[in-house]
Amino acid sequence: MIKASPLARPLPDLPAIAGVTPRVARARYKIWDRCDLTFVTLDEGAAVAGVLTQSRCPSPEVEWCRAALPLGRARALVVNAGNSNAFTGNRGRAAVEAIAARAAAHIGCEPSDIFIASTGVIGVPLPIDKAEAGLDAAFSAPPCSWREAADAIGTTDTFPKAVVTRAAIGDRTVTLVGIIKGSGMIAPDMATMLGFIFTDAAIEPAVLQQMLSAANTRSFSCITVDSDTSTSDTVLAFATGKAGNARLTSIEDAGADAFAAALSDLCLQLAQLVVRDGEGASKFIEIAVEGAESDASAHRIALSIANSPLVKTAIAGEDANWGRVVMAVGKAGEPAERDKLSIRFGDTQVAQGGLAVEGYDEAPVAAHLKGQEVEIGVDLGLGEGRATVWTCDLTHGYIQINADYRT
Amino acid sequence: MIKASPLARPLPDLPAIAGVTPRVARARYKIWDRCDLTFVTLDEGAAVAGVLTQSRCPSPEVEWCRAALPLGRARALVVNAGNSNAFTGNRGRAAVEAIAARAAAHIGCEPSDIFIASTGVIGVPLPIDKAEAGLDAAFSAPPCSWREAADAIGTTDTFPKAVVTRAAIGDRTVTLVGIIKGSGMIAPDMATMLGFIFTDAAIEPAVLQQMLSAANTRSFSCITVDSDTSTSDTVLAFATGKAGNARLTSIEDAGADAFAAALSDLCLQLAQLVVRDGEGASKFIEIAVEGAESDASAHRIALSIANSPLVKTAIAGEDANWGRVVMAVGKAGEPAERDKLSIRFGDTQVAQGGLAVEGYDEAPVAAHLKGQEVEIGVDLGLGEGRATVWTCDLTHGYIQINADYRT
Fold first, then answer.
1. Same structural domain, B71 and B143
2. Strand blocks (E) in A33-160
3. Where is this site: Involved in the stabilization of negative charge on the oxyanion by the formation of the oxyanion hole (chains A, B) (predicted)?
4. Residues 275-304 of B with CB under 8 A from A
5. ipTM of this model?
6. Does residue A222 share a domain with residue A113?
7. In this complex, is the C-beta atom of B370 within 8 Å of any C-beta atom belonging to chain A?
8. What are the catalytic residues of B?
9. Coil, helix or strand at residue A74
């Protein structure tokens, strides 16, 4: 892996999840010597839920998962790194079917019990022979650590990303582990990147889906690196039921709140790790909008700021150019009134009521911008709508990485 | 001025327009020794039309023009460069009123006959004393050339931008000259940048407005540098009537078509010059979308491609990464079907029917990308909707310019 992002976070201690066995292998989808195929098997009885990209040009993997999710059950997850297999027509579909068939044969299950995700360059069919050989190698390999799996699903990622949370359900403690990859082409709309969550909780697939969808709107849907939405975004959650808790069959059940909160917290932490590994990122930026006409309006205004190249480059340059925040609010196409608008950087109010605050002192703002964590607050003064999104700055590193990605 | 954009175009020969007198002066809005105040006077009887930013946080100049435009008459244009005066509350409004009053006093007209535009940093009130002294100096200065005016309205622009077109109305030839500034914060929605058009044609303001609005949708609304829409975007057209043509009082009049075509051509050329001066630009990119469900849908898909940082950086790197075009189509939120999508780079079809063309040869595409003019064609295969937009690539130059703009 290349030099870790300055915003990287160390991997926490990651416990095994009962009923989940990760393995990795070298399929060599690119000319590299690293594990790039991840094969996670699940004991019989695991529930699954997922959120998938809303792109109109989704990968065949996304279509496969979309078709399999309603069945609610999973026996394995296969992740290919280095080739997204997107926009590859019938050959791409054939590759997905071949992977599902081979994995199912190893395990002794239905192909529809196999979930598949791929990430990498668009437009090159995934080589079926490499995928099959990789699957065979993985299946006969010893189980690996979460760290190895988190490394194996990465592409331009600069550090492995994983989170653990826990929740009490009755007298049992259930554990959730999530691994995620993503660095560029990050602007999840209804879903995002490749993220995989494993828990030993016993929970009905429909309930897990309801909780995952809710968590998604407050986490993956609230981050952006570069406003570009992938063709392959996938988040899947697998629950093995091995914790022995009273099975959650409704969000009204005792312990459901605690589990939903742990899942939501996990998703938010995973999403923020992706921003921390944003291509070229040197600053982690939180944008909090309040006083909008609705939460949805606040969300769109926050994303307008977060996706503005001029706001992102100003922060990269540690330049307290708050006028660009005004610009981004103005262009969002949402209700806003210039003369009711307030803006703060960190704890410092910079503009209020349509102009700079009286006696505005840039020194504390400049000091805030020198840090790695930047906070921008916007109050529209119109209503009760609020939203928070996270992004990173736009630096030479982003250009370097993306002007020369395939070569 | 800094090093000219590699995409710069030489200034054409620009004729005087009867009834129009440009002058420039040093108001010194920034610490620089250059003309930054432009004062263009118009003989009595000139008609005016305009299109203005749709930003919800417009500058007081934009509000002033919006209020004055319905009167349809103009005696002068004042342009300040180096300070946009946007988001400056009452002090900004006071500056605009002071400029209008001073200019009107010099000319002997109503303040509402004065049109004002300012460009530069947001959030700093325009110093009234400098503006007034600059106006006085300009009024007593000799008339200047169009080139001097085109230079004086610029900020981060790297070359002066102007276009001339002509049209026959009956037995008279009318002339149109346009000057424009703009380089970053360019993503016109309904209007754009600062652009000023002068013609000796005799035409009713309402007809001029109708033609300008129509031309705008096919020119300024079809360019983007960085997806960021300014608080100050303004295009004004002034018609002095000195050409002696039969006054155009309707778009049905003889010669109206020719004039509208010349105006439209002028606007398109001006808009493309702004893209050619896009901050950090090294490639001029045309994106033509056809086969969409509607023209509006094609326009949104074209802008999704044109604003994609990943598409723009790939072109900067001369990388034939057409998968990113697929991604940008997919994320546009418009009707699209992956398996009907075709993509070409220059004259080379790269993808068709949902995958790369059989025997795809990257060599001609790579050769096309080495040039300064890049063409991307997308056919959605759904309907008759089409649109073309123009943009530039995203390079280190953009980051350099914008991470350090105010210092």
1. yes
2. 37-52, 73-83, 114-121
3. 119-120
4. none
5. 0.78
6. yes
7. no
8. 192
9. strand
Three-state secondary structure string covering A346-372: CCEEEEECCEECCCCCCHHHHHHHHCC
A25 and A81 both lie in a single domain: yes
Q: State the residue range of the domain holding B176.
A: 20-276
Strand partners, B348: B345
Structure tokens at A348: 């410092």
Q: Answer yes or no: is A4 within a domain.
A: no
What separation in angstroms does the CA of B400 have from each of A47, A184, A317?
A: 50, 20, 9
> How many other CB atoms are found less than 10 A from the CB of residue B370?
10
Residue B381, CA distances (Å) to A54, A95, A102, B334, B352 in order:
20, 26, 36, 13, 10
CB contact under 8 A, A332 and B56: yes
Are B72 and B210 spatial neighbours (Cβ–Cβ below 8 Å)? no
Q: What would the pLDDT profile of B71-109 be if each residue is shown by its tens digit?
A: 989 999 999 999 989 888 889 999 999 999 999 999 999
Burial (Cβ within 10 Å: 0-12, 13-18, ≥19) of residue A52? buried
CATH number at residue B210: 3.60.70.12
Q: DSSP assignment, residue A338?
A: G
- Nearest Cα of chain A lies from the Cα of B261 at a distance, in angstroms, of 30
Q: Determine if residue A41 is labeled as part of a ligand binding site.
A: no
pLDDT tens across the length of chain A (407 residues): 478 888 888 999 999 999 999 999 999 999 999 999 999 999 999 998 888 887 788 889 999 999 999 998 999 999 999 999 988 888 999 999 999 999 999 999 999 999 999 988 888 899 999 999 999 999 999 999 999 999 999 888 888 989 899 999 988 899 989 888 877 766 654 444 687 888 999 999 999 989 988 888 888 877 777 777 777 777 788 899 999 999 999 999 999 999 999 998 888 888 888 888 888 899 999 999 999 999 999 999 999 999 999 899 999 999 988 988 998 998 888 988 888 999 999 999 999 988 889 889 999 999 999 999 999 999 999 999 999 999 999 998 888 888 865 54
Nearest CA in chain B to A190: B331
Nearest to B228 among A88, A309, A404 (CB): A309
In chain B, what residues touch A324 (CB-CB under 8 Å)?
A: 122, 228
Provide the terminal-to-terminal Cα distance of chain B, rounded to the nearest Å: 16
Q: Which residues of B touch A84 (CB under 8 A)?
A: 323
Q: Look at A341 and B407 and tell me if their CB atoms are within 8 Å.
A: no
For residues B143 and A20, give the distance between their C-alpha atoms in angstroms, rounded to a whole number: 81
Q: 3-class SS at A326? A: helix
**Tokens 């009711």, residue?**
A340
Q: Which two tokens stand for residue A42?
A: 């699940």
β-pair type (B223-224, B385-392): parallel
CB contact under 8 A, A316 and B394: no
- List of residues 6+ apart from A108 with CB closer than 8 A: none
Asked if B195 and B186 count as a contact pair (C-beta separation under 8 A), the reply is no
Q: How many domains does chain A have?
A: 2
User: Was B181 annotated as part of a binding site?
Assistant: yes
Query: Residue B340 carries which DSSP code?
Result: G
How far apart are the two ends of chain A, measured CA to CA in Å?
16
Q: Residue A57 in contact with residue B330, Cβ under 8 Å?
A: yes
